Amino acid sequence: MGKLRYILLLLSVLAVAVFTRWLLTTLTPQGRQLPVEMRHVADYFVSDFHATIFDQNGKPYYKLKATHMEHFADDETVAMQFPEIEFLREAELPWTVVADSGTVYQDRDILLLKGKVTITHAAASETQRMLLLTRDLRIDLQNKIADTDAEVHVQAKSSNIEAKGMHLNLINNTLVLDANARGTYVP
After folding, report:
1. Do 103 and 81 meet the contact criterion of CB atoms below 8 Å apart?
2. 3-state secondary structure of 124
3. How far apart are CA 87 and CA 171, in angstroms?
4. Short-list 78, 79, 76, CA closest to 37
């Protein structure tokens, strides 16, 4: 009888082991590795990044710099930390945009800035200088148009304006505030 008990105990342990193995393979997702081309991994990075982008006529279009930049081949995006972009215009002073982070999309045509965004329009005198503060700004780099749905604070020589959302044309210097604009003007 001792031998039969021993065999039954052995069969029970074996059955539990087989059942446990079956449970682990059935309930645990299989650890598949994605193909390299499907992984979102930077294929190169640059610290203290500086670039000047030229238009089709060979004239400087804008300057871009960031403390850190990474390129992702899977979706052709460029991620940046603390980007600063300066839009150059012939015979006019530039617009400068600084943000916490940014990503360039769609074959380098769209720049999405995240976090705190500061937009400055340089002017010949301090009284003509304009400062815009917002969050999460989208810039169409080809058409030089910036827009956001977030709160916007505009500071100029003698005025302060707050609004919800804006569209800024960086070529012809037009600013359209979307909603709830309120402010003060001191002549």
Report:
1. no
2. coil
3. 9
4. 76
How many residues appear in the chain? 187
Provide the whole-model pTM.
0.72
Structure tokens that stand for 169 in this block: 């044309």
| Token digits of residue 135 | 């969050």
Under a CB-based contact definition with an 8 Å cutoff, are residues 111 and 95 in contact? no
- What DSSP designation does 18 have? H
Residue 121: which of 172, 163, 166, 48 has the closest Cα? 172
Q: Which two tokens stand for residue 13?
A: 């342990």
CATH of domain 40-185: 2.60.450.10
Q: What is the pLDDT of residues 101-128, one digit of tens each?
A: 999 886 778 899 999 999 998 776 666 6
Token pair of 122, please? 């340089």
**Distance from first CA to last CA of the chain, Å, rounded?**
108
Amino acid at the residue 169 = N
pLDDT mean over 171-180 = 85
Among residues 39, 37, 116, 108, which one has the least CA distance to residue 79? 108
Task: Quote the tokens at residue 55.
Answer: 């238009």
Q: Assess contact for 60 and 88: CB atoms under 8 A.
A: yes
pLDDT attached to residue 29: 58
Say which DSSP state 129 is in.
-
For the chain, give every domain's residue range: 40-185
